[in-house]
């Protein structure tokens, strides 16, 4: 057994031991079988001795990431029942959904910096407890006011899993090996929206709309129990003690945001990540309308077509780690971006040429999804690694920007023409071009700048 300064010795398969740093960010090890999934990890840093020891499970990080999109998507089919039961207009019932996106954007700005100050584990547990409490409050609410308060708490607490899973991956695996993990974790964000609507229909039919919130409470409590039992503290050792008092914490948080926001390397990756998610959510909003009005296909048919898009994205997520190991993170990101751009240009060309079949719309989106599956995990890893010691702040700032811009893109999706696929493909291409241009311009300026 070889001692590690400030850390521990970690047994590995085959009988040997591998030294690691206290922060768990050793990047020098060679890639063996599934290296990104099972790297050696030393003694939990920061709050040493609190909670379990060892590498957090990728499955756990995926479950924590999926919680927020799942609770969002499971609510949407229940809104008509909410409106009937509480005697609301559909527009008022819709505020349970629309306001929660704002709550998620704001919460991402809080959980990341707090985890840099106080540790990933305690912040994650507190956020999940908030999600449980909010779910229960919404389930018991006699009217819209308390239901809305509960939904905001549920959404704000659940979104911590998306933010902190990225920071944990950066803490434990480092930038390059985190890519494979983030690829698989990101795939959970695709699976959750696929399963949630169907499950929601069954729950509303059997238990009413309140059953959707009880399901959210149960899933949040399960994630809380798993995190309490399986999530070690991974934050690298802080440079000094955590600030005491609200004023000191706010000052440190502001300093963290300022430091990350000044870093061009962060925006080189975050800008692309924001544009990529905006492109996807724009399609989520516009796709069903195009399929209906341009091709005469109903929601069920669109759902079947969407399965191919989700499968393509997930397959690329799984392959992302190997591609990144072969090419390096920046080349893998740019390869994915090139595939996405080529797919959208091809789809736009088919639309302008008069192609009138769903395949001419969906097939380019499937190929674009392959490119996104290769590029997005590298963008996430690059952004969270841009400023050492600020992974939580970086994850929070990127997450908030993603929610705000993607939410705006989803709104625009309903305002364009849908008689053909051309308007939708044109705007998707425009979003992606902006993201790629930001990445290339800021990467170049970072390399040549001071």
Weakly predicted, low-confidence segments: 1-51
Helix content: over 70%
Strand order across the largest sheet: 1-2
End-to-end CA span:
43 Å
Number of strands: 2
What is the chains' assembly state? single chain
The gyration radius over C-alpha positions equals: 22 Å
Major sheet characteristics: 2 strands, antiparallel
Structural class: mainly alpha
Q: What's the pLDDT, averaged over the residues?
A: 80
- Roughly what fraction of the amino acids lie in strands? under 5%
Q: How would the global form be characterised?
A: globular
Give the count of helical stretches. Answer: 14
| H-E order | EEHHHHHHHHHHHHHH
Q: What's the short version?
A:
With 450 residues, the chain is an all-alpha fold. It contains 14 helices and two strands, in the order ββαααααααααααααα.
Q: Helices and strands in order, then pairings?
A:
Blueprint: E1 9-11, E2 17-19, H1 58-75, H2 79-85, H3 90-118, H4 120-140, H5 144-158, H6 160-207, H7 210-230, H8 246-261, H9 264-293, H10 299-327, H11 329-352, H12 358-384, H13 391-413, H14 422-448
Antiparallel strand pairs: 1-2
Helix pairs in contact: 1-5, 1-6, 1-7, 2-3, 3-4, 3-5, 3-6, 3-13, 4-5, 4-6, 4-7, 6-7, 6-10, 6-12, 6-13, 9-12, 9-13, 9-14, 10-11, 10-12, 11-12, 11-14
């Amino acid at each position: 057994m070889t001692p590690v300064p400030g850390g521990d010795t970690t047994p590995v398969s085959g009988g040997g031991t591998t030294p690691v740093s206290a922060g768990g960010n050793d990047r020098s090890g060679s890639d063996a079988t599934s290296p990104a999934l099972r790297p050696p990890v030393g003694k939990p840093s920061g709050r040493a001795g609190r909670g379990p020891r060892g590498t957090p499970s990728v499955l756990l990080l995926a479950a924590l990431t999926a919680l927020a999109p799942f609770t969002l998507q499971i609510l949407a089919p229940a809104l008509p029942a909410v409106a009937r039961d509480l005697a609301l207009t559909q527009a008022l019932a819709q505020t349970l959904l629309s306001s929660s996106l704002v709550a998620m954007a704001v919460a991402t700005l809080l959980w990341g910096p707090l985890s840099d100050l106080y540790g990933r584990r305690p912040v994650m547990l507190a956020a999940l407890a908030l999600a449980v409490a909010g779910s229960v409050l919404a389930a018991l609410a006699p009217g819209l006011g308390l239901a809305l308060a509960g939904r905001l708490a549920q959404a704000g607490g659940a979104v911590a899993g998306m933010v902190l899973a990225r920071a944990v991956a950066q803490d434990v695996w480092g930038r390059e090996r985190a890519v494979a993990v983030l690829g698989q974790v990101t795939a959970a964000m695709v699976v959750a929206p696929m399963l949630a609507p169907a499950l929601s229909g069954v729950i509303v039919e059997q238990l009413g709309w309140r059953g959707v919130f009880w399901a959210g409470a149960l899933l949040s409590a399960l994630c809380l129990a798993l995190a309490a039992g399986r999530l070690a503290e991974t934050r690298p050792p802080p440079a000094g003690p955590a600030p005491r008092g609200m004023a000191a914490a706010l000052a440190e948080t502001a300093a963290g945001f300022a430091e990350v926001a000044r870093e061009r390397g962060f925006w080189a990756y975050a800008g692309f990540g924001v544009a990529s998610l905006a492109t996807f959510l724009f399609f989520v909003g516009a796709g069903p309308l195009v399929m209906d009005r341009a091709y005469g296909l109903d929601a069920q048919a669109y759902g079947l077509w969407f399965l191919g898009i989700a499968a393509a994205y997930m397959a690329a997520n799984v392959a992302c780690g190997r591609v990144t190991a072969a090419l390096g993170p920046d080349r893998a990101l740019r390869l994915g971006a090139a595939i996405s751009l080529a797919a959208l240009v091809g789809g736009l060309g088919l639309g302008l040429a008069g192609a009138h079949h769903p395949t001419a719309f969906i097939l380019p989106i499937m190929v674009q999804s392959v490119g996104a599956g290769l590029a997005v995990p590298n963008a996430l890893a690059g952004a969270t690694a841009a400023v050492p010691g600020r992974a939580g702040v970086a994850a929070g700032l990127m997450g908030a920007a993603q929610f705000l811009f993607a939410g705006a893109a989803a709104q625009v999706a309903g305002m364009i023409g849908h008689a053909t696929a051309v308007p939708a493909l044109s705007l998707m291409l425009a979003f992606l071009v902006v993201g790629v241009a930001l990445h290339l311009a800021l990467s170049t300026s970072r390399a040549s700048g001071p």
